[in-house]
Amino acid sequence: MQLNFGSYHITPIQPKDGWNICNFAVANEDRLKRYFPKTLEQNLTPDLSNHFVSKKVKQFEAKEEFLFTLRENESRKLVGLVYIKEINWIKKQGEFAYAIDYNVEGKGLATDAIKHLSDYAFETLGLETLQIIVHKSNLGSLKVAEKNNFTWIKTLKNEFTPPGEAPLNMELYELYKEIE
C-alpha cells in the first residue's frame, strides 16, 4: 500500500526502515522529546531503531497498532511518522499521533497525511471513530485536526505527562465515519 499526494507518499512501516527512523528521530530530538519520548528513546541508535521497527512491523501485521512513514518521492527521505494507535476493535476507534521533520513543518504535510489515512482507517480498517489528542499550545497539530474536520469533544484532565513535567490537560478531537 502506498498513498500518494503531491511530492510525498505514505507507506506502512517496513523492516528496512530502521536507519531512516533513527536518522529522523535524532535529527528531530527536540521536537520528539516532549510528546514522543518513547519513540525517541527507542530510536537513538541504529540497533535500537531496528528493534523498534521489528516490533512495529509485527504490531502492524497483528492489527494492534499501525505505524506509517511519510517520505519525499524524489529523495525517499523520511520526513514524518504517523501512528494509528490505541485501537479498540469493539468500538471501532483509533487515535492518530504524528510527528513531522522540522525541515518540512508548516507545509501541510501532516494535514494531508491525516486526510489520506483517515480515509484508509475508515475504508480499509473499518474504524468508525478517529481521535486526535493534542495540547492547546501545539497550534500546528490543532490546525491538522481542524482542517480535517475533526470536532473538539472535551478537555481531558491530566491526560499526558511529558518527561520531567507535571501532567497536562489535553484536547480531544474526533472524526466520525460518514454513514451513507
Account of the protein in words:
With 180 residues, the chain is an alpha+beta fold. The protein has one domain (3-128): 3-Layer(aba) Sandwich (Aminopeptidase). 33% of the residues lie in helices and 33% in strands. The chain has helices spanning 18-27, 29-32, 37-41, 46-61, 109-123, 139-147, and strands at residues 3-5, 8-12, 66-72, 78-88, 93-100, 129-134, 151-160, 168-176. It has an eight-stranded mixed β-sheet with strand order 1-2-3-4-5-6-8-7, with helices on both faces. Strand 3 and strand 4 (78-88) form a beta hairpin. Helix 1 (18-27) packs across helix 4 (46-61). The chain is globular, with a radius of gyration of 16 Å. The relative contact order is 0.14.
Can you lay out the helices and strands and say which pair or pack?
Elements lengths: L2 E3 L2 E5 L5 H10 L1 H4 L4 H5 L4 H16 L4 E7 L5 E11 L4 E8 L8 H15 L5 E6 L4 H9 L3 E10 L7 E9 L4
Parallel strand pairs: 5-6
Antiparallel strand pairs: 1-2, 2-3, 3-4, 4-5, 6-8, 7-8
